[in-house]
Amino acid sequence: MSEWYAGGLRFECTRCGMCCTGPPGLVAFTPEEGREMARALGVGYRNFLVDHACRWAGGWALEEVEGEHGFDCTLLDREKVPGEALCRVREARPGQCRTWPFWPENLSNPGAWKKAARRCAGMGRGPLVAIEEIRRQRAATPNW
Ligand code: SF4
Hints:
Elements: E1 9-11, E2 28-29, H1 31-41, H2 45-52, E3 53-56, E4 59-62, E5 64-67, E6 70-73, E7 76-77, E8 86-87, H3 95-98, H4 104-107, H5 110-117, E9 123-129, H6 131-140
Antiparallel strand pairs: 1-9, 2-4, 3-4, 5-6, 7-8
Helix pairs in contact: 1-2
The protein binds iron/sulfur cluster.
Residues 13-19, 100, 120-122 line the site of iron/sulfur cluster (SF4).
């Protein structure tokens, strides 16, 4: 049976940062991903863990800090470009962030996609992402 999104889905990040704030969330990462993020910031891995990570299920997750928008990821930069919320390690962001919004739970049915789109302005806009790419990202979504 072909997926309901076989014709592709539109997505273009608007850099609103909503996926990196709001209610308390969890973004787990592997040690390799942590080292990549540390490199992107130009800091040592230990320092990165102290400043940006917390223990989770025997591994690590990104730390959050409560602010006016909710619980911001500590890697979110709201200062650099007014009106935008930028990831400070965008090119090195972990798989859980990289595969958004093509997570299996968002793709389970059109209603789930619509519900997720209420918090993500990028879903449903921009260029059409082909089914092959959606499948690739869906399969790459970490299963924590
Ligand atoms: S919520 Fe969507 S549009 Fe906003 S920063 Fe995240 S991915 Fe981009």
